[in-house]
Design brief:
single chain, 339 residues, mainly beta, six-stranded antiparallel sheet, 30 strands, 0% helix, globular
Length: 339
């Protein structure tokens, strides 16, 4: 990978754009996930598109309206819609309705656990259904902004206004509250289970060290952070929201406390979405002008995957072994890169 300094034109970056298989989906995309050899592009409305290695497209209807959220564990893509349904689609394209809100409220957030459990939210209520089919719910102080399962144990983090709630659905007792003023819109546990980080409505992140609830202020962004991704092994948390990829260090016992983040792949426009390679210290970053870069985190070396002059990048994902990258912009122009 070659290096380009701040503002160094795209012509100075080594290009692998000729290795991308273009895919025209013809409709907006909100996220992309891999199920076996297929890239599954989640549309903004009603359906998902399965795209094979050759770029052939097959559509699967999943919702009777807008798709508001989606996650995947590599076995299924689970989505929530404004039709009040939580829907799963598997690698064979089989669709199953997992839950329907009794009041047909919008499903704002979904999360998946490794043992088959899943969570979803409608309004102020978070629901968990275990792998054995047992369902529990918890009401939090305000509308749920994000959900995430801890990497160990059945523990759910629920982001909301003025903080986050940590809930063990299988245990009695009061859930733990982590407070921080402002609206929290996304949430993630560090892979080692030691830290919790929320993305805020304002241009900042906020973190807590779970052992002692110590605060970690992660500010200085010019725009809201809409995308967060942990690097292989959880050493860094890469984020969008600035005119470079901001990567916060989490390898030490104090995480990013008292440390400056790395600033990778600077461009004159903001990063909109980030995705970390599952096995190596490499990330992919998409930008407002349609650029996609692959970045080596060790030294900032860059490869150009997609040139500028396109709509903002909306979705990025690696497959399980990191041999393929899928992307799409806000208008549905997509691509597959084989490495």
């Amino acid at each position: 990978m070659s290096q380009a300094g701040p503002g160094g034109g795209q012509a100075s970056i080594a290009s692998i754009t000729d290795r991308v298989t273009p895919v025209s989906l013809g409709a907006p995309v909100s996220s992309v996930h891999f199920l076996r050899d297929n890239a599954v592009f989640v549309g903004a409305e009603e359906s998902v598109a399965f795209v094979d290695k050759a770029g052939e497209i097959g559509r699967v209807a999943t919702h009777g309206g807008g798709i508001l959220c989606a996650v995947s564990d590599g076995k299924r893509v689970v989505s929530g819609g404004d039709d009040g349904k939580v829907v799963a689609v598997d690698a064979e394209g089989e669709v199953a309705v997992l839950a329907t809100d009794a009041k047909r409220r919008w499903i704002d957030c979904v999360a998946l656990h490794g043992d088959g459990a899943f969570a979803w939210s409608a309004g102020k209520t978070a629901f968990v259904r275990s792998g054995k089919g047992e369902e529990k719910s918890l009401e939090v102080p305000s509308t749920v902004g994000g959900l995430a399962f801890a990497p160990k144990g059945l523990r759910l983090a629920i982001a909301h206004y003025n903080g986050a709630t940590l809930w063990f659905p299988n245990m009695t007792g009061t859930p733990e509250s982590l407070t921080w003023a402002g609206s929290q819109l996304g949430v993630t546990f560090s892979p080692d289970n030691r830290f919790l980080v929320t993305a805020m409505h304002e241009p900042a992140l906020h973190g807590w060290r779970l052992a002692d609830s110590r605060h970690m202020r992660m500010s200085g962004y010019p725009g809201r952070v809409r995308s967060m991704a942990w690097s292989a092994g959880g050493k860094f948390l890469a984020t969008s929201g600035a005119d470079s990829v901001i990567a916060w260090p989490f390898a030490s016992k104090d995480g990013p406390m008292g440390k400056e983040p790395a600033m990778l792949a600077p461009l004159p426009v903001r990063a909109t979405v980030v995705a970390c390679h599952p096995k190596q210290d490499i990330l992919a970053a998409g930008y407002e002008d349609g650029t996609i870069l692959m970045v080596r985190m060790e030294d900032g070396g860059e490869l150009l995957v997609r040139r500028n002059g396109n709509p903002p990048v909306a979705a990025l994902a690696w497959n399980a072994d990191g041999s393929r990258l899928a992307f799409a912009d806000e208008q549905g122009d997509a691509g597959l890169l084989a490495l």
